Amino acid sequence: MAREFVITFPGGAQVDAASEDFVIRTDQPVRGGGAGAFPTPFDLFLASMGTCAGIYVLSFCQQRGVAAEDVRLTQVIEMDPSTHMVSEVRLTIHVPADFPRKYEAALIRSAELCAVKRHLENPPAVVVQTQYG
């Protein structure tokens, strides 16, 4: 099963990715030659981990009838200064004081089910090619 995104260049430093259902717009910051109108592709990549884990946390709460309005996740990205690559991603699930403690371990396990995290642990092959015509 394949999923296709069509990547286009609408102007400036913007790059869009369109699927059947939606368009994801990206841009570079002003200091990088863009207008800063949209997130950078790398910011979307980083945010995808936290938002993916968030979907699992939200679903966990909904399935148990636990209010999720006061639950939030923070994501801290550590960068290796010598390689400028991400060296660690820390996700913290913040719950209110009255959140049922019996769910703590299961809540963490639910966030760890994130498909983005699992793909990073077992990365796919990336093939880059050209096609003429």
| Main sheet characteristics | 3 strands, antiparallel
Number of strands: 5
Under the CATH scheme, the architecture of the domain at 39-121 is 2-Layer Sandwich
CATH homologous superfamily title of the domain at 39-121: K homology (KH) domain
Strand order of the largest sheet: 1-2-3
Query: What's the mean pLDDT score?
Result: 96
The percent of residues in helical segments reads 25-40%
Order of helices and strands: EEEHEEHH
Distance between the termini: 25 Å
CATH class term of the domain at 39-121: Alpha Beta
Q: Name the beta content range.
A: 25-35%
Find the CATH topology of the domain at 39-121.
GMP Synthetase, Chain A, domain 3
The radius of gyration computed from the alpha-carbon positions, rounded to a whole number of angstroms, is 18 Å
Description of the structure:
It is a single chain. By secondary structure, the protein is of the alpha+beta class. The protein has a domain at 39-121: GMP Synthetase, Chain A, domain 3, CATH 3.30.300. The protein has helices spanning 41-64, 104-112, 115-121, and strands at 6-11, 14-18, 23-26, 72-80, 85-94. The strands form two sheets. Strands 1-2-3 form a three-stranded antiparallel sheet, with no helix packed on it. It has a two-stranded antiparallel ribbon with strand order 4-5. Strand 4 (72-80) and strand 5 form a beta hairpin. Helix 1 (41-64) packs antiparallel against helix 2 (104-112). The longest helix has 24 residues, at 41-64. The relative contact order is 0.12. The model has no long low-confidence stretch (mean pLDDT 96).
